[in-house]
Amino acid sequence: MIQTLLQEKYPVYTIQFDKKETSCGSVDDIIAHFKKRIDAHSVVRFIGVFDHYAHTASLEGGVIAPGIKAAKNILFCFGKEMPSPLVLAVRPRSIGVTEMDDSFVVTFLEAPNPTANEAMESWTKALIDIGG
Hints:
The protein has a 6-stranded antiparallel β-sheet with strand order 1-2-6-5-4-3. The protein is 28% helix and 33% strand.
């Protein structure tokens, strides 16, 4: 996984791997992988799935980069504490899954909670371990 700054201010974790490196054959398979991890976690709660590709494709003037075949976000919350109203600005969490011609790209924004980051990174890296 690599960490970059998107637009010079958003810390984003990214991993891109060839389709042959995983047993997951589609964005939906990868979303199902994350859903299993979310459902198994004692603190995390599943919220939903957003089909970002379908949404953007439905918009007049919507732009989708060449090579993107599908893109969805899985939404969930690690919220175990609510120390102030400000924490709601960084919740809930989302993991983006994009299918490219020969690869998948998984991205998520760094969370202020190190435990959440460790879990999301572990869940993502497991995608490669389960296949290939």
